[in-house]
Amino acid sequence: MNEEGLRDERAPLPEITRVRAPNPGPLTLDGTNTYVVRDGDQAWVIDPGPRDAGHLAAVEEAAGLARGVRPAGVLVTHRHDDHIEAAGTLRRRLENRGGTQVPLWAADPAAVPGSRIPPGRLDGDRGTLGHVIHLPGHTADSIALLVVGGRLLVGDTLLGGSSTVIVPPDGSLGDFLQSLRVLRALCMDGRISEILPGHGEAFSSPPAALAAIEQAIEHRLARVEQVRAARARGALTMPRLLREVYGPDLAPELREGAEWNLRAAIEHLSGPE
After folding, report:
1. Residue 123's CATH number
2. Are 12 and 26 in contact (CB under 8 A)?
3. For 63, 101, 134, 260, which has the most beta carbons within 10 A of its beta carbon?
4. pLDDT for position 183
């Protein structure tokens, strides 16, 4: 690798394997997606997920440590437990298996013991693996990894099959919309070929990725207008707002996420024009 981390154009693109954690639920959908990115004989783990023995064993298998692949780092996309709970445990296991220190990166090191702020670019033996992008909104510390070739490991900024929950004050709808606009610009510039979310299925082509981003922006703006109109009609309590915006048949398991998204919309409406 040269000093600038430039990648040999003849080198094959990194391989990405999804390992889905066994933690399904209303907010995690089918479970947390842990991603193993392999580049030559090096492997990086993105979002280790819950501290589940079977899941960690599957992550190690996907990393190929038994076949001589070296662990190169662990990156978490944001502070939520379903993404970070196993980070320290996995790091220790990787170090024990590989016999060398393994960096653990998080945008907010206080949320992940033993971690440090990631560099803007992750480099390996073959040069640049990918670039870390700051995408606040879902949480203040949300980041994504844009792997060379255009695949974006986006954490919970986008979900495959549901809308992202925003929990103020850590989460911010204004920041979230700005982050989506950044992703839209990257898509339109041809830099994103596929989006791999923290939960749900991938948006596996440039048109699908752009459509998902556009839909997320439109959905949030429409929700803000719904909340604005409901409040103008006198819906000022959370129970009434839930009925006005989501209707009378909102499933109980979806109520918590709906309440948080309404609070995020109210905070957004209360901000500076």
Report:
1. 3.60.15.10
2. no
3. 63
4. 98
**Is 74 domain-assigned?**
yes
**Do you know the residue count of the chain?**
273
pTM higher than 0.90: yes
For residue 58, how many C-alpha atoms fall within 13 Å in the half-sphere facing its CB?
A: 17
Q: Which helix (H) or strand (E) holds 17?
A: strand 15-20
The one-character DSSP state at 6 is P
State the residue range of the domain holding 137: 15-270
pLDDT in tens, 93-127: 999 987 889 999 999 999 999 999 999 999 999 99
The pLDDT tens digits for 65-82 are 889 999 999 999 999 999
Beta strands in 31-142 (DSSP E): 33-39, 42-46, 70-75, 104-105, 121-124, 127-134
User: Using an 8 Å Cβ cutoff, are 207 and 199 in contact?
Assistant: no
* Inter-residue contact 169 to 178 (CB < 8 Å): no
| Domain presence at residue 4 | no
Residue 2 has pLDDT above 50, yes or no: no
Among candidate residues 34, 37, 101, the one with its CA nearest the CA of residue 64: 37
Q: Is residue 3 domain-resident?
A: no
Q: Tokens 């510390």 appear where?
A: 141
Q: How does strand 194-197 pair with strand 151-155? A: parallel
In 3D, which of 19, 42, 39, 22 has the Cα closest to residue 31? 22
Q: Which residues make beta-bridge pairs with 190?
A: none
The first and second tokens of residue 17, run together, are: 């394997």
Residue 9, domain member (yes or no): no
Q: Which residue type sits at 83?
A: H
